[in-house]
Amino acid sequence: MKIRDIVNRELVNLTNCEQEPIHIPGSIQPHGFLLGLKSKDFTIDYCSGNVSDFISKSHKELLGHRFEEVFGTFAQQELQNYISNNRMLSSLLLKVELDKQLFVCTVHLSDGIYILEAEPSNEQSKNANEVYDHTTQFLTYLNGSNTMKDLCQLVAEGTREVTGYDRVMIYRFDEQYNGEVFAECCREDLEPFLGLHYPHTDIPAQARELYLKNLLRLITDIDYNPVPIYTLDDQEGKNLDLSLSILRSTSPIHVKYLQNMGVGATLTISLIHKQKLWGLIACHHYSQKNLSPDIRLAAQLQGHFITSQIDLRQSSEEYEVSRKVNMAYDKLSMFELAVDGEEKYEELVSNPEILNICNAAGVALIIDDQVYSHGHVPEEKDILFLTGFLAKKSKNSSFHTNKLLDLLPNHPELSKHTPGVIFHSLDIEGTNCIIWFRPETKTEVNWAGDPSKSIIKDKKGLSPRNSFELWKEIVNFSSKKWLQPELETVAAYSYSLQRQISLILVAKEEEKYRKLSELLSETNAELENINWISSHDLQEPLRKIQLISSMLVNEEDLPPSVGKMLNKLNLSAEKMQALLSDLLKFNKVKYNTEPFFEVEVSDVIQDLIEEFRENYEFQLYFEIEDLPIVTGESFMLRQLFSNIIRNSIKYRNPENAPLIKISSPESIDWEDQEDDEEYHYLIFEDNGIGFDQQYAKSVFNIFTRLHGNSEYTGSGMGLALCKKIMQHHKGKIKAESQEGKGTKIFLAFPKID
């Protein structure tokens, strides 16, 4: 049977300490011994090298044997009962006799191995009732404290009384895990550490991670010699995770750090709040010191008291702030903006409550690139620059900081003047927003040694600093931090302000559209009046012009030139009369209220064909298919079909006799037709001169003419009137044509059940 140790012998220094695997050191502290038992059969697979210091057997005699074989059936049963009752890592420790000696043990499971850590039972340790008397007394202290600082001070005093350490500190972390001695109780002859700050490098990330897993850490003698852990050499890379171990050996870097401080023994208790490391109870002794497991648990209970009270105490401290800002919010909520907002915006930012809702020193409201500001604020150009930057950074949402320089390192003057800002966008574009400002607050931080020299280099290489003398730092370019009640109140008010501004913008738009609607109504009324005058009042003067010009033309003694001019005058009057007649027809469509009836399209077409054949001297040809019955106003439909046929005759090809085909297909491909719409379709197709397809839509516009007056007469309103009639019938009309190959006019009438 081959045995080897699992000691981690990697060289650790400050260049690689952040990657140090401190959870698998492969060794323990010597004030107890460790056994690693396979969970299936309790075979001893790991054993610390100092086991012979506590019992009569060595690690070589234990490895590979079952626990029962070595320590007997009774001890085996005690261990199994302890495990099966889920008491591992609980406040109930396992007290068991091993090799005729009484030990106090902790047990936990790690990767399929039960790790048993045994320490000799100290008969002179404090009785449990004595320990809990201290706890009961401490509870009365809790009830008598109001602030978090008061509570932590009581915890420090109570923990020192329970444990007897020379110094007990409550160590609190900030966002970057820099630490501060928040409360302290120590021997009178010792220099106090209260208020000192320590850089985050003092406790590296992997150490903080272990503090989250294992809430109690004990070093009984800083100058101890680590005890190796041995195992059977039956597997390559075999190791043991000691993250939850009490006896786990400590990083040599951490030991050196404590030696530089002159510390002889330590106890550390984690303070966890919302699954994050809030702080530590750090106990220092300046000589060797061990605690019995029951006293350790009593000390750990002090930590539980703190963590259970953090929310309550912080809420108590923030209550007064919350009360004041909410009072300011209630007053500010009574202030309402108006549509004529400029004066109201000025009045709003001048209202003292808008600063009180977050204890700011200045505020700026930006509406449509207009800046309304009050109090301690930057220049207007800087405000516009800053709001544009923050709108982009926050994606038109919200943002806050107490150190603007971290965001704008190239703008130190702006960052120094108002380093604290809260930004809230008031629209999705970020053009409207509000921003609160706080001025610079210089802060003096007392460090335990220069934080920039937390690592020193000497002839031995890199090592932790050995100077912890007071070092003062002045912190510039930062403001007082924004508290959570301030941020919440500002957010609530910003949302309220955003709603008010949105309502104002909507009201302005409604007023704008109302005025435009009134103007449009007046314009339409004027146009209708002009249309009425042109289509009625001008008819009579035109008739008189025609009558007089006709009479003058018949005079025998008129010079030829005068007669020619009178003929032109008469022709112009006829054209004007035709235009006015078409305008009247076009206008009548809008106001037509005649009821709709079923109309036989075939009958209307036959009447029109007979009428056209009587009025034209040349031959007209028609091809008529079966046509549907449509619902509409018969007079208007007659006008519609008449205009289409008349256009086909007017724009006939002089080389061919006019041929007009009228059909009714089952369907026509129409771009804007919905799937569930049903129509009756008509197609009027001729063999006329046609036109370029690019004008297929414009031919339906009023007064549109594709040919000159010298070639074809007309007002250019025929197809416009057709479109108007189809719109009146909720139908559709379109044209397809090709120059020299005729024109097709498509009509779609809705089917009405």
From TrEMBL:
Keywords, comma-separated and alphabetical: Chromophore, Kinase, Phosphoprotein, Photoreceptor protein, Receptor, Sensory transduction, Transferase
Q: Which Enzyme Commission numbers does its entry carry?
A: 2.7.13.3
Q: Which residues form the Phytochrome chromophore attachment site domain?
A: 147-304
What GO biological process terms are annotated to this protein in UniProt?
detection of visible light; regulation of DNA-templated transcription
Which reactions appear under catalytic activity for this entry? ATP + protein L-histidine = ADP + protein N-phospho-L-histidine
GO terms, molecular function = phosphorelay sensor kinase activity; photoreceptor activity
The record's listing under SMART domains reads:
GAF, HATPase_c
Q: What class of enzyme is it?
A: transferase
Q: Give the top-rank taxon of the lineage listed in the UniProt record for this protein.
A: Bacteria
Membership in a protein family? In the N-terminal section; belongs to the phytochrome family.
Question: What's the protein name?
Answer: histidine kinase
